């Protein structure tokens, strides 16, 4: 849809607009057009806002300040391919926001911390980058300081801080997705240990660890797709685990151990070349 068409629709619309979403092909390389649309009076009570500049243009254009004028009414916000303004701290209180997505967004540590602290009702948070692995940016530490209300978190295309081992606690998180991330073994297991209510985990094409250990009292479904070769897959204590879906590159002589998972159903091949399969107290060597 051409810019002139969007402008005409906003100018002629007589009712109230609750949702406004703009795709990359609707926007110029700068944010002037978007700014003019967001200042339209018909958007005054907007509840869902989403816009995306081209994520492969780095850095992206500056997000217009007008995008934050809906802070008191927004329930869903999805921003992609832009730079977050550093001088917008006073606008970063979104009391009704439940769903926040930041994709390939450049945002300062202070702004991200203020933004998440200003979302007391946040239920879902998605944060990630679209880059090839050699350019994978580091996840800002404040991205892990979201409110305790959060039930769903998704991270993608980034490197997790190496110093986060004992800094994470997500008491109500139920679903966690780590997609194409780099994370150390210690950080991965510390993160999972800090999610006592977790029941759904997706770990897709991520790297930085050679052992994956499942030790969770409430986890029901695990979906794992490995990018690096894995030496050990251990299901240690998972009384509620029902499904383990997995595939990927596996190390020869891999050690698979399923110690305690009475409800477990495994989907996908284990491997053609494992050397030790342990089921409870029963071991078999190949």
UniProtKB/TrEMBL annotation:
- Identify the Pfam families for this entry: LRR_At5g56370
- Domain F-box/LRR-repeat protein 15/At3g58940/PEG3-like LRR spans what residues? 34-131, 132-281
Ranges in coiled-coil conformation: none
Q: Which InterPro entries match?
A: F-box_dom-containing, LRR_dom_sf, LRR_FXL15/At3g58940/PEG3-like
What is the protein name given in its UniProt record? F-box/LRR-repeat protein 15/At3g58940/PEG3-like LRR domain-containing protein
Question: Taxonomy-wise, where does this protein's organism fall, top ranks first?
Answer: Eukaryota, Viridiplantae, Streptophyta, Embryophyta, Tracheophyta
């Amino acid at each position: 849809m051409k810019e002139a068409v969007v402008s005409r629709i906003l100018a002629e619309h007589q009712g109230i607009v609750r949702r406004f979403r703009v795709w990359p092909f609707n926007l110029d390389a700068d944010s002037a057009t978007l700014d003019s649309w967001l200042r339209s009076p018909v958007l005054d009570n907007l509840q869902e806002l989403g816009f995306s500049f081209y994520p492969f243009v780095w850095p992206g254009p500056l997000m217009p300040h007008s995008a934050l004028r809906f802070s008191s009414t927004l329930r869903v916000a999805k921003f992609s391919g832009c730079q977050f303004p550093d001088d917008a701290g006073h606008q970063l209180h979104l009391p009704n926001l439940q769903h926040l997505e930041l994709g390939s967004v450049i945002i300062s540590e202070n702004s991200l911390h203020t933004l998440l602290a200003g979302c007391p009702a946040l239920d879902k948070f998605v944060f990630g980058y679209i880059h090839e692995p050699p350019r994978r940016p580091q996840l800002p530490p404040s991205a892990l300081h979201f409110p305790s209300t959060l039930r769903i978190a998704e991270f993608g295309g980034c490197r997790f801080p190496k110093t986060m081992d004992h800094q994470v606690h997500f008491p109500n998180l139920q679903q966690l997705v780590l997609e194409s991330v780099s994370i150390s073994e210690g950080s991965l297991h510390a993160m999972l240990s800090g999610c006592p209510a977790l029941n759904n985990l997706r770990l897709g094409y991520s790297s930085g660890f050679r052992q994956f250990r499942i030790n969770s009292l409430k986890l029901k479904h695990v979906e794992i797709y490995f990018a690096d070769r894995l030496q050990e897959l251990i299901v240690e204590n998972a009384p509620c685990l029902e499904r383990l879906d997995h595939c990927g590159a596996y190390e020869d002589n891999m050690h698979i151990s399923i110690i305690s998972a009475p409800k477990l159903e495994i989907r996908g091949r284990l491997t053609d070349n494992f050397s030790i399969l342990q089921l409870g107290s029963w071991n078999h060597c190949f």
